[in-house]
Task: structure prediction
Amino acid sequence: MKFKNYLTEQKVKAEDYEAAIVLGFLKITNQKLDLNSAGISNSVYNTLQKNPKILESGEKIAKKVKSHFRLGNVKAEQYGRAKSSLTDFWKSHGATDTTPKTDILIGDKRLSLKIGIAQLMSGGKAESLATFYAAVDDVGEGIKKDKNYKLTEDVINSFITSTTAKGQIGPLIKSGENEVVNKAESAHKNAMKVLGNLFANNREFKIAFAREAMSGFKKYGKTSNSAAEFMLVASHDGSSVSIHSVYDDNYCAKIADAAKLQVRFKTSQKVSKASVTPQNPKGKTGMYSFWSVTSLIVNAMSEDTYHKGETLQEIAILKKAKNAVLGFVNKIFKSVKSTAKKFINFVIGEEKPTITTRKIKF
Result:
């Protein structure tokens, strides 16, 4: 069943799935629901009551979690709204975002939920730098010998923070009229190149970068509830569920290889009470804030996806082989076509045959 079939008039978000899993866990363990204790807002709870399919999926996923960890009647909480404390390391790079990497806390199991297209990180200038230095701290000073290290450090430092302009970012980029946007867009393209090169030349760094993006170990500290220890990967209908430890080097390597790097603008439209009208109930002003972000995105993170990825590679190989065979057949067809044409011309008297002879010794 397609994800869109799960949607009613109210849009279901990834955060709603987190709440559905918590509700599902409380249900299968016969625990009394307390929304505050479970970290679930009234609005999310009301949305889920109108989406029984999401509740059903949440219960299926919760059963897999309970079975995987052999959990009893432990506390379950949607953790995304919890307050977090950053490490001194993280704050020293100017980063201030405190959104937990842990989405769901069940007992002492800190889970980051990934359904469908998963965004491991989407950090602005300070968050990007902190993640960069966290990976450097893990792999050691040797990486600084790579010329792309300094290039990456410099280009991230050139990212823009919050800047305001009239109109959406797409047309601004296309027009080339805003100098700030032009410089930032150039920096984004450059960052994609040099950071991509740094990843390609230093596999351990690439893995360390992905691990920090997934876990937040350096950001919050390994023992913090805000740092995720497990990736909970599930399909929208809850039929496919897998759980992976962030400490697993092989898993982090697969994620690092599967992740797509993006360096781009992130935008937010400004609103104002003074602009509110019946035709403009949200008070949109037409002014946008925009800033640079680094994102790591994977299409899916389950073992099934890896097999699918391998299959896609095999398809690529088969496609190449297919093209080669078609090319060979094409050549034969052209040769046959040419010979046939000559034969027909000969028959109708428009061309004389070319006869090749050779001496045969007896």
In short: The chain has three domains: 1-78, 84-99+113-301, 302-362. DSSP finds 13 helices and nine strands in the chain.
